[in-house]
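Supplementary Note 3. Input sequence used for the single-chain structure prediction.
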Amino acid sequence: MDNKTPRIHYGYVILICCCLVMGVDVGLSMSCAGIFYQPVSSSIGASTGEFGMYMSISFLTSTLMLGVAGRMLERWSARVIITAASALLGVMMSLMSLMTQIYQFYLAGALIGVSLAFLLYLCFPTLINRWFSRRVGLLFGICSASSGIGGMLFNPLGGYILTRWGWERGYLVFGLIILVVVTPLLWLLLRDRPADKGLKPVGYAEGETAAADTSGIIYKDAVRMPSFYVLMAFGFMIMASSTLYLFLPKYASSVGYNIEEGALVAAGAMAGVTLGKIALGYINDRNISLGVAMSTLTGILGLVMMMTMSGSLAAVIFGAFMFGWCYAAVTVQTAVLVRGVFGNRNYAQIFSVISMALAAGGTVASGAWGFIVDRTSFSFIFITGCVMLGFCFFSGLWVIGRASANGRSHNR
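The predicted structure, written as discrete structure tokens, is reproduced below.
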């Protein structure tokens, strides 16, 4: 078979598929989840915290699934698994339009979590690492940013549908978009590895692949290092604080804005996610410490702005935009930190464990914030989020500094 690389490498088709997964599947199910909290909880007679527990259940099943999901992608066809995960997500979101009891949403959340273990956490890191051997940080950022683009596009659409036709129609439309548009395209376009198309990874000709595959720390040594557990704490905290975005529409409502204005606040956060992910990918390819600072301090600034300038819708939207940078850090900054500290040798195995800490943070926080705000205030949970992001700032700098001091930094 001819191994000559074509003018447009098929790896860029894989990149588009990853962006579709993040932009539409993850965008609709995660980035737009917050706009349903108020209308659904009111409709079924549940508190915000009780309804938000379906997201905690989703993160929990993702956490449990990640233990085997990485091995499944290595042993079996990523094309089949990711397409099936997309189909499952679309079916469950469509069925949510028919649900009237809280336990039904909890069951749906469990199955959504199974699909998101593949779609949110492992899809683009696995496929980009297979198909590209250079500019991986920037490509991570581009893929991750797609969820923000999806949020920017679909939050206003969702707000429009919810206002005029109700939350049931919103879930049905979102589910059908996944089933009719994304899932068939994934089946048609995805391929597991470059060899399936008679190709080498993008960048292979420059001789980078061999070096990348052999450099770094092996898994059994990584788990003995303090940095491994600090990074797990970083992942838990950054994910837990980022789930505050789910409550931004509810916050907007609490300070006097209507559903559509709340959807604009959510869209502002997604704009921050979009720009933040691309910018963080670019920044981290040059300086990981600066990436840590940008992803955490902007999030703190955004929360402070929303608390202190709630009387101005423009200020709240801009604060949500700034906060979106810490949401961007969940997928970009964590992945780059793992690569920067431990290298590429056993990256997938190490990152899958760190991803379990990410999912655990979402499991605890996405439901807990709702219960806490029901009993305290939005100011309390925003201040708590600032403290958690402060921890992420110092812990991220610490692991990079420790790796550099020991001559193990893999930042390029």
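The chain has one domain: 11-405. The radius of gyration is 20 Å.
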